[in-house]
Amino acid sequence: MIAVSLLLAPPRSFAQDVTYEQLVRADHTPQDWLMYGGDYKSQRYSRLTQINRENVHSLKAAWMYQPNHPLQPFESSPVVVDGMMYVTEPLSTVTALDARLGTKIWTWSAHLPDKILTVGVHRSNRGVAILDNTLYMETLDAHLVALDAKTGAVRWTVHVDENDRGYAMTGAPRVLNGKVIVGVSGGDVGIRGFVDAYDAKTGKRIWRVWTIPSPGEPGSETWGKDMSGTGGGGTWGTGSYDPELNLLYWTTGNPAPDYNGSDRVGDNLYSDSVLAIDPDAGKLKWYFQFTPHDTHDWDAIQVPLLFDNTVDGKPRKFLALANRNGFYYVLDRVTGEFVAGVPFVTETWAKGLDKKGRPILLPNTEPTAEGNLVYPDGHGGTNWNSPSYSPQTKLFYVSAREIGAYTVAGKPKVDFPGFGGGGRNALSGDDSYGAIRALDVMTGKLKWQYKMLSPAETSTLATAGDLVFAVTDEGNFFALDAASGKLLWEFTVGGANAESNLITYEVGGKQYVIGASGNCFVAFSLP
Amino acid sequence: MPGNYTITDKEAGNIVAYLRTLDSATSSAQATGDAKKGEALYNSSGCSACHMIAGQGGSIGPDLSRIGAMRGASSLKARLQDPGANLPQVGEGGFGSKWTQYLMYRAVEKDGRAVEGVRVGEDSFTIVLKDAGGKFHGLWKPDLRSLEKETGKSFMPSFKDTLSATQQDDLVAYLMSLKGAQ
Known about the structure:
heterodimer, A: mainly beta, Methanol Dehydrogenase, Chain A, 1 helix, 38 strands, B: Cytochrome Bc1 Complex, Chain D, domain 2, SH3 type barrels, 2 domains, 5 helices
């Protein structure tokens, strides 16, 4: 294959405003990486081809970036605009870097209280959103902050909800036309989850969509009793958006208390679901629940990946999601109708999915006092890290985790903050493994896999250079042939619990790939 | 989702302390043999060729300077008899995963050269084995013809038939007396 330079949009001046129209067409400006997931479809795919199957073997580290005070591993998915990169750092810091050199330009940290309640929450941050000349970042103590993109000066701050009630925020916001959409963590301490929309200019709250219904509302009959104040259903992932349908797709986490469902009889809507929300009205259009009455901590907060395909001669719109419960799902994203679903990792709790996509449960898979071995473990067949999709190969690339755990049911504790109903003991590292798996996007059928030593929590990044990038749990960056899964390049960084969210961009005529391992970002380019 | 990553160092320390009591509890903590005789046996049986105590000895097997503070008597006796069985697990992997220590592997390189050794380091692309001579072999996995776990195997010989039951108890009593620097 010959590397071809794309006809890129004309270069803009350094850090110029990013309009909503540019965000809608983000895939057409692959020199920038404008949002979490790369575009509104969250495909984490780039049209850049300078780094490709033929030359990736000579990829070299160009620069690295480490924080001054490493606290927790990086989970940030950087945003790049006109040669300026914005990364977030634990706990609630954003830093602007020169994307070609790695030089720090400014940094801003939230003034956090000494005590922050974060049970079951990584004390990290997964990135910013940008609109016009403003960055939006969530803070661990549940605030949303708007910062000037050139200087880091604060434009406004809003208090989203009470941290001492268990609300924390770690995600990357999603920016729509004039609105900033955010979700919250805390489902394990019995919060009542929600998705919020704020006015991008003023920070005024426009709407709130609760994930747990109040008594009398649709879905409240799925709890047995009123659990609307403490039912969980966190919203800590970042949603996707279809501008044509004007539908926002946001996913929800586990019901509370975890591991013991005896106090919440029923399906527990809208936990472990994807919600299709009309962002103008702040109303639920449809929902699809992946794991009714979850007792294994299978939050459904994986990124909903949107793709289009022609079926029987008709163009159709789909949503794909590889779920923590071990199944890969395809939904019609106009109606929410179930299209296909198959296991993408070993799972031992369901015989399969019925015609509507509901799991057909196997007996004896509930947590027990002694511990019941179930695959996948509580971290799931995959976790929050983005999958990717290449329109060239029509393959869905996901970090698959082959691991089971003994899930233990304890006594349900429903008094805040001691919320919980058990726990889990995962199998040893020598009895588990990870893999990057390429699935047929329509059927979920395995096309190829590349095995890793440990079950990893890495994103994948697909490019038009016929490549898929990922990072192992032990800190090996690597590139695979997108069509065959053949290993083409590897670079060892080390660093425990690499939780990378890889992106790519181009500046000064050079394509870079960047990801994090431990407390270090590494940018790679050709010599 | 309360996972292992939410615990503090102090809590982790408490868990380790608890696990150590389990090891001692499941194996009788008290040694019944004669530690003096055990020390003589240690020196005459060639143990120090592979093991180190207080900085003296070989470095092929684990350092035994604090072994009496880490293991119970019946656990040590079981290891003398079947050194490759029930290898200890350590929690150094991601998300609190545990990994088997001293696990033996046999790797065959593309040119047919074989390396047998104890795993001392591993990631998805590399493995480092320490052979019977204490030499380290760093291997690039994609270049290997084969790589196999040798579960149950150990470089250490079994003393089940070469030492009497009394001698084994004496050796265990000596090992149990090793608590590290005071």
